[in-house]
Amino acid sequence: MKGNLKEKYPHLFCKVLWEWGPIRAEFKQLYTEPPHNLIAHVNLVPRIGNNWVLLKHKSGNWDIPGGTLEPGETYKSALQRELLEEAGAELGSFQILGAWHCISMAEKPYRPHMPFPEFYRLVGYGQVELKVAPTNPPDGEQIAEVECVPLKKAIANFQSCQRYDLAELYQFASELEL
Fold first, then answer.
1. What average pLDDT does this structure show over 46-61?
2. Whole-structure pTM over 0.90, yes or no?
3. Separation of alpha carbons 178 and 173, rounded Å
């Protein structure tokens, strides 16, 4: 990767505070997996051919597929489950892109089985195949729409809900795909 990533993708490669934790997080490009015992979440920047897949929540906000690992799950099995639940998709390929390295400032983990206070939100990119409608389990995120669009449209959708980090994540993945 040429150039300074923090300059090229300032919203992605910056330190952030996620208030829902509260969690301090910083995205880093990775070439290998972080320690498996520290992976708490997994996400995918999915593609179908030359188009990019993104999710629209019933709230109207755009998002990327993925979620929290269940007890005993590997990140790949969690990703396969989350893709089916949120996008009705099957995983075709997975390449590590990076991860948010996270430090929780909460008193206890989000779920008892999760690593705490340090953990990773692993992110990959790869091809998927849309098979069925999202299953939208009652205890999961409710997805209203799955879009498969050119990169410029995906970026515009993320920017429309102020998710500049995800817009840059898709741009970053597209650069690595070349």
1. 96
2. yes
3. 9
